[in-house]
Amino acid sequence: MTDTETTRTETWTYVGQRVDRSNKAFGAWLPDNAEDERWFAKVKGTQPGARYEVTIRMNDDDTESVYSSGERGPRFIGMHDNEDWRLGWAMAERAALTALEQQRLAKRASNQLHEQCTPLREQFRETIGYSRRAALLAAIIEEVTS
How far are the Cα atoms of 82, 117, 145 from residue 136, in angstroms, in the given order? Predict the structure, then answer.
């Protein structure tokens, strides 16, 4: 097959970044005359609602790949004409990126808390007896909540 037989150009709308269940960000695209978004890790647009000509390559396993950069990368052709949709896509992108940042901050805070509690865990392990351990935990809870 020649290269022209395995590629085609379509008009797609970039609808923003989305986050999957493993907290990875993807660029979400909506092909013309399609209802479902297509997500790509390395192919991102400039802003939700921006329309592009994209070059799609058919792979040997019948999957599609989108050129992410270079001569065949997405080419901006204008903005989607439905302002309400553009606003909705922008809000969905902001919500996704906010949730992703919250997850990152929570993980960072959790790691810091884990490190800060290391001396307390060691003291707890060294404390012998149920009543002494209970008293230590009560002291820690009182200190944290006061």
Answer: 62, 13, 14
User: 52 and 14 in contact (C-beta within 8 Å)?
Assistant: yes
Hey, is 122 helix, strand or coil? helix
The one-digit pLDDT tens for each residue of the chain (146 residues) are 444 458 889 999 999 999 998 888 899 999 998 889 999 887 777 899 999 999 988 888 888 888 888 888 889 999 999 999 999 999 999 999 999 999 888 888 888 888 888 898 899 899 988 889 999 999 889 988 98
Cβ atoms within 10 Å, residue 27: 22
pTM of the complete model:
0.66
H/E stretch holding 125 reads helix 118-126
Which amino acid appears at position 66 of this protein? V
Give me the sign of the Cα torsion angle 106, 112, 114, 116: negative
Domain ranges of the chain: 3-109, 110-145
Antiparallel, parallel or unpaired: β 50-58 and 75-79: antiparallel
CA distance 129 to 144: 23
Neighbours of 33 (CB within 10 A): 7
